[in-house]
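During the second year of the project, the team shifted from modelling isolated chains to modelling whole assemblies. The rationale, set out in the original proposal, was that interfaces cannot be judged from single-chain predictions alone. As a representative example for this report, we include one of the complexes processed in the last quarter. Its constituent sequences, exactly as entered into the pipeline, are reproduced here:
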Amino acid sequence: MMKKVFKFFVAAIIFSGISFFQACGDGADESEIQKMNTEAEEEGERQTMATKVRKVLYSIPSPIETATLVKSSGVEFNASTMSDPNKVGDYNTSKRQAFNLGVYGSDLAYASIFEQSQEALNYFSAVKLLADELSVSDVINEDNISRFERNIENRDSLMVFVNEIFWAIDATLAEDDRGYVSAIVMTGGWVEAVSILLKNGKDMEGEHRERVKQILADQQFSLKNILKLTEAYENEENLVSIEGDLKRLNELFSRIDKEDKPTTVDKDESGKIVIGGNDKIIISDDLLAEITDEVNAVRSKYVN
Amino acid sequence: MKKLYIFFLAVALAAPVISEAQCKSFVKKKCAPQLGDYIPSDKYNSLRMVEGEEAEMSLIFVANHSYKVVVCAQAVIGDVVFEVLTDTGTMIFSSAENEGQNYFEFTTTSTEELLVVIKVPESESETGMMQQGCVTVMIGSTANNY
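Output from the structure prediction step:
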Protein backbone atom coordinates (compact mmCIF):
# COMPACT_ATOMS: atom_id res chain seq x y z
CA MET A 1 0.00 0.00 0.00
CA MET A 2 2.80 2.43 0.91
CA LYS A 3 4.38 1.78 -2.50
CA LYS A 4 1.14 2.84 -4.21
CA VAL A 5 0.94 5.96 -2.12
CA PHE A 6 4.55 6.71 -2.99
CA LYS A 7 3.82 6.35 -6.73
CA PHE A 8 0.78 8.57 -6.39
CA PHE A 9 2.86 11.12 -4.53
CA VAL A 10 5.54 11.11 -7.27
CA ALA A 11 2.86 11.55 -9.95
CA ALA A 12 1.35 14.45 -8.03
CA ILE A 13 4.72 16.15 -7.68
CA ILE A 14 5.48 15.74 -11.41
CA PHE A 15 2.06 17.12 -12.28
CA SER A 16 2.66 20.03 -9.89
CA GLY A 17 6.02 20.71 -11.48
CA ILE A 18 4.54 20.85 -14.97
CA SER A 19 1.76 23.07 -13.72
CA PHE A 20 4.30 25.40 -12.14
CA PHE A 21 6.09 26.02 -15.41
CA GLN A 22 2.82 26.50 -17.24
CA ALA A 23 1.19 28.77 -14.71
CA CYS A 24 3.48 31.69 -15.42
CA GLY A 25 2.76 31.09 -19.06
CA ASP A 26 1.15 34.23 -20.35
CA GLY A 27 -2.37 33.09 -20.49
CA ALA A 28 -0.83 31.12 -23.31
CA ASP A 29 -2.30 27.66 -23.27
CA GLU A 30 -0.56 24.33 -23.53
CA SER A 31 -1.47 23.79 -27.18
CA GLU A 32 0.10 27.11 -28.12
CA ILE A 33 3.35 26.13 -26.44
CA GLN A 34 3.29 22.68 -28.06
CA LYS A 35 2.66 24.30 -31.42
CA MET A 36 5.65 26.59 -30.98
CA ASN A 37 7.83 23.64 -30.04
CA THR A 38 6.72 21.65 -33.06
CA GLU A 39 7.33 24.55 -35.42
CA ALA A 40 10.82 25.02 -34.02
CA GLU A 41 11.66 21.36 -34.45
CA GLU A 42 10.33 21.34 -37.98
CA GLU A 43 12.43 24.28 -38.97
CA GLY A 44 15.45 22.84 -37.28
CA GLU A 45 16.40 26.12 -35.72
CA ARG A 46 14.84 27.54 -32.63
CA GLN A 47 16.37 30.92 -33.28
CA THR A 48 13.47 31.92 -35.50
CA MET A 49 11.01 31.67 -32.62
CA ALA A 50 12.16 34.98 -31.21
CA THR A 51 10.55 36.82 -34.07
CA LYS A 52 7.37 34.77 -34.07
CA VAL A 53 5.96 35.93 -30.76
CA ARG A 54 5.86 39.56 -29.84
CA LYS A 55 3.64 40.77 -27.05
CA VAL A 56 2.76 44.41 -26.66
CA LEU A 57 1.77 46.17 -23.44
CA TYR A 58 0.58 49.73 -22.90
CA SER A 59 0.97 51.79 -19.79
CA ILE A 60 0.32 55.37 -18.72
CA PRO A 61 1.64 57.60 -15.93
CA SER A 62 0.12 57.15 -12.49
CA PRO A 63 -2.44 59.67 -11.20
CA ILE A 64 0.27 60.81 -8.76
CA GLU A 65 2.56 61.80 -11.65
CA THR A 66 -0.28 63.62 -13.42
CA ALA A 67 -1.38 65.37 -10.20
CA THR A 68 2.23 66.50 -9.71
CA LEU A 69 2.11 68.12 -13.16
CA VAL A 70 -1.18 69.81 -12.30
CA LYS A 71 0.38 71.27 -9.17
CA SER A 72 3.48 72.39 -11.05
CA SER A 73 1.27 74.47 -13.36
CA GLY A 74 0.65 76.79 -10.43
CA VAL A 75 -2.97 75.94 -9.62
CA GLU A 76 -4.34 76.08 -6.08
CA PHE A 77 -6.18 73.17 -4.48
CA ASN A 78 -9.90 73.31 -5.18
CA ALA A 79 -12.04 70.58 -3.59
CA SER A 80 -15.02 71.39 -5.81
CA THR A 81 -13.15 70.11 -8.87
CA MET A 82 -13.19 66.54 -7.51
CA SER A 83 -15.90 63.91 -7.48
CA ASP A 84 -18.16 63.58 -4.45
CA PRO A 85 -16.91 60.67 -2.29
CA ASN A 86 -20.35 60.37 -0.69
CA LYS A 87 -21.74 59.17 -4.02
CA VAL A 88 -19.78 55.94 -3.75
CA GLY A 89 -22.91 53.97 -2.82
CA ASP A 90 -24.68 55.07 -6.01
CA TYR A 91 -22.41 53.06 -8.27
CA ASN A 92 -24.15 49.74 -8.60
CA THR A 93 -22.81 48.24 -11.83
CA SER A 94 -19.32 46.81 -12.16
CA LYS A 95 -18.61 49.20 -15.04
CA ARG A 96 -19.46 52.32 -13.03
CA GLN A 97 -17.70 50.90 -9.98
CA ALA A 98 -14.51 50.35 -11.98
CA PHE A 99 -14.69 53.76 -13.67
CA ASN A 100 -15.25 55.54 -10.35
CA LEU A 101 -12.50 53.54 -8.65
CA GLY A 102 -10.17 55.22 -11.14
CA VAL A 103 -11.88 58.59 -10.57
CA TYR A 104 -11.48 58.35 -6.80
CA GLY A 105 -7.88 57.18 -7.27
CA SER A 106 -7.10 60.40 -9.15
CA ASP A 107 -8.93 62.46 -6.52
CA LEU A 108 -6.93 60.69 -3.80
CA ALA A 109 -3.70 61.47 -5.67
CA TYR A 110 -4.71 65.12 -6.14
CA ALA A 111 -5.60 65.53 -2.44
CA SER A 112 -2.36 63.79 -1.40
CA ILE A 113 -0.14 65.99 -3.58
CA PHE A 114 -1.76 69.10 -2.09
CA GLU A 115 -1.47 67.61 1.44
CA GLN A 116 -5.21 67.71 2.10
CA SER A 117 -5.28 64.93 4.67
CA GLN A 118 -9.01 64.93 5.50
CA GLU A 119 -9.93 64.90 1.81
CA ALA A 120 -7.41 62.12 1.20
CA LEU A 121 -8.98 60.07 3.99
CA ASN A 122 -12.46 60.50 2.49
CA TYR A 123 -11.27 59.33 -0.93
CA PHE A 124 -9.32 56.43 0.54
CA SER A 125 -12.56 55.23 2.21
CA ALA A 126 -14.39 55.51 -1.13
CA VAL A 127 -11.58 53.57 -2.89
CA LYS A 128 -11.81 50.83 -0.28
CA LEU A 129 -15.59 50.49 -0.72
CA LEU A 130 -15.33 50.20 -4.50
CA ALA A 131 -12.42 47.75 -4.24
CA ASP A 132 -14.68 45.62 -2.01
CA GLU A 133 -17.48 45.81 -4.58
CA LEU A 134 -15.10 44.70 -7.33
CA SER A 135 -13.87 41.76 -5.23
CA VAL A 136 -10.35 43.05 -4.76
CA SER A 137 -11.02 43.75 -1.12
CA ASP A 138 -8.03 41.75 0.15
CA VAL A 139 -5.79 44.48 -1.28
CA ILE A 140 -6.91 46.96 1.37
CA ASN A 141 -6.74 45.26 4.76
CA GLU A 142 -6.49 46.49 8.33
CA ASP A 143 -2.70 46.86 8.04
CA ASN A 144 -3.10 49.15 5.01
CA ILE A 145 -5.69 51.26 6.78
CA SER A 146 -3.39 51.69 9.80
CA ARG A 147 -0.47 52.54 7.50
CA PHE A 148 -2.57 55.11 5.67
CA GLU A 149 -3.59 56.74 8.96
CA ARG A 150 0.02 56.77 10.19
CA ASN A 151 1.29 58.45 7.01
CA ILE A 152 -1.55 60.83 6.32
CA GLU A 153 0.52 63.91 7.17
CA ASN A 154 3.58 62.75 5.22
CA ARG A 155 3.10 63.52 1.53
CA ASP A 156 5.93 61.36 0.19
CA SER A 157 4.88 58.30 2.18
CA LEU A 158 1.28 58.86 1.15
CA MET A 159 2.23 59.01 -2.54
CA VAL A 160 4.09 55.69 -2.24
CA PHE A 161 1.14 54.18 -0.37
CA VAL A 162 -1.46 55.32 -2.93
CA ASN A 163 0.54 53.87 -5.83
CA GLU A 164 1.17 50.62 -3.96
CA ILE A 165 -2.55 50.18 -3.32
CA PHE A 166 -3.43 50.76 -6.98
CA TRP A 167 -0.54 48.53 -8.08
CA ALA A 168 -1.95 45.71 -5.93
CA ILE A 169 -5.45 46.27 -7.39
CA ASP A 170 -4.03 46.21 -10.95
CA ALA A 171 -1.99 43.06 -10.20
CA THR A 172 -4.96 41.26 -8.66
CA LEU A 173 -7.21 42.10 -11.61
CA ALA A 174 -4.52 41.04 -14.11
CA GLU A 175 -3.96 37.70 -12.41
CA ASP A 176 -7.73 37.13 -12.15
CA ASP A 177 -7.95 37.58 -15.95
CA ARG A 178 -9.93 40.79 -15.45
CA GLY A 179 -7.60 43.07 -17.36
CA TYR A 180 -10.61 44.81 -18.94
CA VAL A 181 -11.63 46.03 -15.47
CA SER A 182 -8.14 47.54 -15.12
CA ALA A 183 -8.67 49.28 -18.48
CA ILE A 184 -11.89 50.86 -17.17
CA VAL A 185 -10.18 51.90 -13.90
CA MET A 186 -7.36 53.46 -15.94
CA THR A 187 -9.87 55.32 -18.14
CA GLY A 188 -11.73 56.70 -15.12
CA GLY A 189 -8.47 57.84 -13.53
CA TRP A 190 -7.32 59.55 -16.71
CA VAL A 191 -10.66 61.31 -17.35
CA GLU A 192 -10.72 62.63 -13.76
CA ALA A 193 -7.11 63.85 -13.94
CA VAL A 194 -7.84 65.76 -17.17
CA SER A 195 -11.08 67.10 -15.72
CA ILE A 196 -9.25 68.39 -12.61
CA LEU A 197 -6.61 70.01 -14.83
CA LEU A 198 -9.21 71.76 -17.01
CA LYS A 199 -11.38 72.94 -14.10
CA ASN A 200 -8.40 74.29 -12.19
CA GLY A 201 -6.81 75.84 -15.25
CA LYS A 202 -9.84 77.50 -16.86
CA ASP A 203 -9.30 80.91 -15.24
CA MET A 204 -5.53 80.94 -15.45
CA GLU A 205 -3.75 83.43 -17.64
CA GLY A 206 -0.40 84.06 -19.26
CA GLU A 207 2.42 81.64 -18.59
CA HIS A 208 0.31 79.48 -16.26
CA ARG A 209 -2.39 79.06 -18.91
CA GLU A 210 0.23 78.01 -21.47
CA ARG A 211 1.58 75.48 -18.98
CA VAL A 212 -1.92 74.03 -18.49
CA LYS A 213 -2.31 73.78 -22.27
CA GLN A 214 1.04 71.97 -22.57
CA ILE A 215 0.03 69.45 -19.88
CA LEU A 216 -3.30 68.96 -21.65
CA ALA A 217 -1.58 68.39 -25.01
CA ASP A 218 0.73 65.82 -23.41
CA GLN A 219 -2.34 63.85 -22.34
CA GLN A 220 -2.62 62.73 -25.96
CA PHE A 221 0.17 60.20 -25.28
CA SER A 222 -1.79 58.60 -22.43
CA LEU A 223 -5.07 58.72 -24.35
CA LYS A 224 -3.49 56.87 -27.27
CA ASN A 225 -2.23 54.11 -24.98
CA ILE A 226 -5.55 53.75 -23.12
CA LEU A 227 -7.32 53.49 -26.47
CA LYS A 228 -4.96 50.74 -27.64
CA LEU A 229 -5.47 48.93 -24.36
CA THR A 230 -9.27 49.03 -24.65
CA GLU A 231 -9.07 47.89 -28.28
CA ALA A 232 -7.29 44.77 -27.05
CA TYR A 233 -10.54 43.77 -25.31
CA GLU A 234 -12.75 44.23 -28.36
CA ASN A 235 -15.22 41.55 -27.29
CA GLU A 236 -15.76 42.96 -23.83
CA GLU A 237 -19.23 44.48 -23.71
CA ASN A 238 -18.38 46.80 -20.80
CA LEU A 239 -15.72 48.51 -22.88
CA VAL A 240 -17.73 49.20 -26.04
CA SER A 241 -19.17 52.57 -25.01
CA ILE A 242 -15.95 53.57 -23.24
CA GLU A 243 -13.99 52.91 -26.42
CA GLY A 244 -16.42 55.14 -28.30
CA ASP A 245 -15.96 57.90 -25.71
CA LEU A 246 -12.18 57.63 -25.97
CA LYS A 247 -12.28 57.73 -29.78
CA ARG A 248 -14.29 60.97 -29.73
CA LEU A 249 -11.77 62.48 -27.31
CA ASN A 250 -8.88 61.23 -29.43
CA GLU A 251 -10.37 62.91 -32.50
CA LEU A 252 -10.39 66.23 -30.61
CA PHE A 253 -6.87 65.78 -29.21
CA SER A 254 -5.55 64.94 -32.66
CA ARG A 255 -6.57 68.45 -33.78
CA ILE A 256 -4.00 70.00 -31.43
CA ASP A 257 -1.30 71.65 -33.58
CA LYS A 258 1.99 70.13 -32.61
CA GLU A 259 5.43 70.77 -33.99
CA ASP A 260 6.95 67.35 -33.46
CA LYS A 261 10.61 67.64 -32.62
CA PRO A 262 12.70 64.49 -32.38
CA THR A 263 13.42 63.20 -28.88
CA THR A 264 16.80 64.43 -27.66
CA VAL A 265 19.13 62.46 -25.39
CA ASP A 266 21.86 64.33 -23.49
CA LYS A 267 23.79 64.04 -20.26
CA ASP A 268 23.70 66.57 -17.43
CA GLU A 269 26.71 67.66 -15.35
CA SER A 270 26.41 64.63 -13.07
CA GLY A 271 26.40 62.28 -16.06
CA LYS A 272 22.70 61.44 -15.76
CA ILE A 273 20.81 60.94 -19.00
CA VAL A 274 18.32 63.68 -19.84
CA ILE A 275 15.54 62.93 -22.31
CA GLY A 276 13.51 65.74 -23.85
CA GLY A 277 12.06 67.16 -26.99
CA ASN A 278 9.96 70.14 -26.02
CA ASP A 279 7.35 69.93 -28.75
CA LYS A 280 5.64 73.24 -29.41
CA ILE A 281 1.87 73.08 -29.22
CA ILE A 282 -0.94 75.38 -30.22
CA ILE A 283 -4.45 74.89 -28.83
CA SER A 284 -7.02 77.45 -29.89
CA ASP A 285 -9.54 78.59 -27.29
CA ASP A 286 -12.31 77.02 -29.38
CA LEU A 287 -10.60 73.63 -29.37
CA LEU A 288 -9.91 73.94 -25.66
CA ALA A 289 -13.62 74.59 -25.10
CA GLU A 290 -14.56 71.56 -27.24
CA ILE A 291 -12.17 69.28 -25.35
CA THR A 292 -13.47 70.60 -22.02
CA ASP A 293 -17.08 69.94 -23.04
CA GLU A 294 -16.32 66.42 -24.21
CA VAL A 295 -14.30 65.53 -21.09
CA ASN A 296 -17.18 66.83 -18.95
CA ALA A 297 -19.70 64.84 -20.99
CA VAL A 298 -17.75 61.57 -20.64
CA ARG A 299 -17.17 62.14 -16.94
CA SER A 300 -20.85 62.96 -16.29
CA LYS A 301 -21.94 59.80 -18.08
CA TYR A 302 -20.26 57.55 -15.50
CA VAL A 303 -19.91 59.78 -12.42
CA ASN A 304 -23.26 61.56 -12.10
CA MET B 1 -4.83 6.56 3.94
CA LYS B 2 -7.73 8.13 2.01
CA LYS B 3 -6.85 11.46 3.62
CA LEU B 4 -3.31 11.13 2.30
CA TYR B 5 -4.58 10.68 -1.28
CA ILE B 6 -6.84 13.74 -0.94
CA PHE B 7 -3.92 15.78 0.39
CA PHE B 8 -1.64 14.89 -2.53
CA LEU B 9 -4.42 15.49 -5.05
CA ALA B 10 -5.12 18.89 -3.52
CA VAL B 11 -1.41 19.78 -3.73
CA ALA B 12 -1.33 18.82 -7.41
CA LEU B 13 -4.48 20.72 -8.33
CA ALA B 14 -3.53 23.82 -6.37
CA ALA B 15 -0.14 24.17 -8.03
CA PRO B 16 -1.20 26.44 -10.92
CA VAL B 17 -3.04 28.78 -8.56
CA ILE B 18 -0.05 28.91 -6.24
CA SER B 19 2.22 29.66 -9.20
CA GLU B 20 0.02 32.58 -10.35
CA ALA B 21 0.23 34.05 -6.90
CA GLN B 22 3.99 33.51 -6.97
CA CYS B 23 4.32 35.87 -9.98
CA LYS B 24 2.76 38.74 -8.06
CA SER B 25 4.66 37.77 -4.95
CA PHE B 26 7.92 37.50 -6.95
CA VAL B 27 7.48 41.05 -8.25
CA LYS B 28 6.66 42.37 -4.80
CA LYS B 29 9.55 40.65 -3.04
CA LYS B 30 12.34 40.58 -5.62
CA CYS B 31 11.65 43.47 -8.00
CA ALA B 32 9.94 46.30 -6.12
CA PRO B 33 12.84 46.79 -3.64
CA GLN B 34 15.15 47.50 -6.60
CA LEU B 35 13.41 50.86 -7.11
CA GLY B 36 15.03 52.20 -3.94
CA ASP B 37 13.78 55.68 -3.06
CA TYR B 38 11.77 56.17 -6.24
CA ILE B 39 7.97 56.19 -5.97
CA PRO B 40 6.72 52.97 -7.59
CA SER B 41 4.24 53.18 -10.45
CA ASP B 42 0.68 51.98 -9.90
CA LYS B 43 0.69 49.71 -12.98
CA TYR B 44 1.40 45.97 -12.86
CA ASN B 45 3.50 45.76 -16.02
CA SER B 46 4.10 42.01 -15.91
CA LEU B 47 4.12 39.23 -18.44
CA ARG B 48 4.73 35.52 -18.46
CA MET B 49 7.31 34.80 -21.13
CA VAL B 50 8.96 31.75 -22.62
CA GLU B 51 12.46 31.38 -23.98
CA GLY B 52 13.04 33.05 -27.33
CA GLU B 53 10.10 35.36 -26.87
CA GLU B 54 10.02 39.14 -27.25
CA ALA B 55 7.76 41.74 -25.70
CA GLU B 56 7.36 45.43 -26.31
CA MET B 57 5.97 47.91 -23.84
CA SER B 58 4.87 51.45 -24.66
CA LEU B 59 5.44 53.70 -21.66
CA ILE B 60 4.70 57.39 -21.12
CA PHE B 61 7.11 59.43 -19.01
CA VAL B 62 5.95 62.86 -17.90
CA ALA B 63 8.00 66.05 -17.99
CA ASN B 64 10.36 67.13 -15.21
CA HIS B 65 10.62 63.80 -13.43
CA SER B 66 13.50 61.44 -12.67
CA TYR B 67 12.83 57.82 -13.52
CA LYS B 68 14.26 54.39 -12.86
CA VAL B 69 13.10 51.56 -15.12
CA VAL B 70 13.91 48.09 -13.77
CA VAL B 71 13.42 44.94 -15.85
CA CYS B 72 13.18 42.00 -13.51
CA ALA B 73 12.75 38.33 -14.49
CA GLN B 74 12.64 34.97 -12.78
CA ALA B 75 15.99 33.20 -13.05
CA VAL B 76 14.40 30.14 -14.66
CA ILE B 77 14.21 31.91 -18.06
CA GLY B 78 17.83 33.05 -18.05
CA ASP B 79 19.39 36.48 -18.45
CA VAL B 80 16.68 38.62 -20.01
CA VAL B 81 17.97 41.57 -22.05
CA PHE B 82 16.16 44.81 -22.78
CA GLU B 83 16.45 47.95 -24.84
CA VAL B 84 14.90 51.38 -24.42
CA LEU B 85 13.95 53.10 -27.68
CA THR B 86 12.42 56.42 -28.67
CA ASP B 87 9.07 56.34 -30.46
CA THR B 88 10.96 56.59 -33.75
CA GLY B 89 13.10 53.56 -32.93
CA THR B 90 16.37 55.20 -31.86
CA MET B 91 18.03 53.12 -29.15
CA ILE B 92 18.73 55.02 -25.93
CA PHE B 93 19.83 52.13 -23.73
CA SER B 94 20.73 48.48 -24.14
CA SER B 95 21.30 46.18 -21.17
CA ALA B 96 23.46 43.95 -23.38
CA GLU B 97 25.80 46.88 -24.02
CA ASN B 98 25.91 47.75 -20.30
CA GLU B 99 27.16 44.47 -18.83
CA GLY B 100 23.65 43.15 -18.29
CA GLN B 101 22.58 46.07 -16.10
CA ASN B 102 18.88 45.48 -15.42
CA TYR B 103 17.89 49.10 -14.88
CA PHE B 104 18.00 52.45 -16.66
CA GLU B 105 17.88 55.82 -14.93
CA PHE B 106 17.13 59.16 -16.59
CA THR B 107 15.38 62.49 -16.19
CA THR B 108 12.85 64.13 -18.51
CA THR B 109 12.44 67.72 -19.61
CA SER B 110 9.28 67.01 -21.63
CA THR B 111 6.64 64.27 -21.74
CA GLU B 112 7.85 61.42 -23.94
CA GLU B 113 6.71 58.01 -25.12
CA LEU B 114 9.46 55.39 -24.92
CA LEU B 115 9.44 51.75 -25.88
CA VAL B 116 10.97 49.01 -23.76
CA VAL B 117 11.76 45.88 -25.77
CA ILE B 118 12.43 42.75 -23.72
CA LYS B 119 14.05 39.62 -25.12
CA VAL B 120 14.19 36.26 -23.39
CA PRO B 121 17.25 34.29 -24.54
CA GLU B 122 17.06 30.93 -26.25
CA SER B 123 17.68 28.07 -23.89
CA GLU B 124 20.77 25.94 -24.30
CA SER B 125 19.09 23.10 -22.47
CA GLU B 126 19.05 19.80 -24.33
CA THR B 127 16.00 18.50 -22.51
CA GLY B 128 13.69 20.30 -24.94
CA MET B 129 11.58 21.56 -22.06
CA MET B 130 10.48 25.14 -22.60
CA GLN B 131 10.97 27.23 -19.50
CA GLN B 132 8.52 29.95 -18.59
CA GLY B 133 8.82 32.74 -16.10
CA CYS B 134 7.52 36.08 -14.98
CA VAL B 135 9.02 39.24 -16.41
CA THR B 136 8.10 42.65 -15.04
CA VAL B 137 8.95 46.24 -15.81
CA MET B 138 9.02 48.31 -12.63
CA ILE B 139 8.91 52.07 -13.01
CA GLY B 140 9.87 54.42 -10.21
CA SER B 141 9.65 58.20 -10.38
CA THR B 142 10.38 61.35 -8.43
CA ALA B 143 9.18 64.80 -9.39
CA ASN B 144 11.96 67.31 -9.96
CA ASN B 145 9.90 70.33 -8.93
CA TYR B 146 6.44 70.53 -7.44
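The longest strand of chain B covers residues 132-143. Confidence is low (pLDDT under 50) at residues 7-20 of chain B.
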